[in-house]
């Protein structure tokens, strides 16, 4: 059974990780490695383009994997790659 200090640490750590993820997403640039993970799929590659949609508000990133497949996703869905030594 966890005590109050353990719970406090978990809450703090969760906030810290969320803050780091937000900073990661805000500072994305062309050439960065990113990953998109779903319940049954994973796509990782390098950002080749960042653009604003015609509405002038929403930003999208275009990511290319090592096969040359392009994926366009919302910037807010990008995650840090799990394996930082992977070749992409």
Features:
1 helix; 26% helix; 88 residues; four-stranded antiparallel β-sheet; disordered N terminus; alpha+beta
Descriptive notes:
The protein is an alpha+beta fold and 88 residues long. It contains one helix and four strands, in the order αββββ. It has one helix at residues 4-26, and strands at 33-37, 42-52, 59-64, 70-74. Strands 1-2-3-4 form a four-stranded antiparallel β-sheet, with no helix packed on it. A hairpin with a 6-residue loop joins strand 2 and strand 3. The radius of gyration is 16 Å and the shape is globular. The protein starts with a helix and ends in a 14-residue tail after the last strand. Mean pLDDT is 81; it is low at 1-7.
- Strand fraction equals 25-35%
Number of strands: 4
**Helix and strand sequence:** HEEEE
The N- to C-terminal Cα distance equals 42 Å
What structural class should be given to the helix and strand makeup?
alpha+beta
**Residue windows where pLDDT falls under 50 for at least 5 positions:** 1-7
Helicity, as a percent range: 25-40%
Largest sheet: 4 strands, antiparallel
* Average pLDDT rating: 81
Number of helices: 1
Give the neighbour order of strands across the main sheet.
Answer: 1-2-3-4
> Which quaternary structure do these chains form?
single chain
Computed Rg: 16 Å
Shape: globular
Secondary structure elements and their pairing?
Elements lengths: L3 H23 L6 E5 L4 E11 L6 E6 L5 E5 L14
Antiparallel strand pairs: 1-2, 2-3, 3-4
Question: What is shown here, in short?
Answer:
Helix content is 26%, strand content 31%. The protein has one helix at residues 4-26; strands at 33-37, 42-52, 59-64, 70-74.
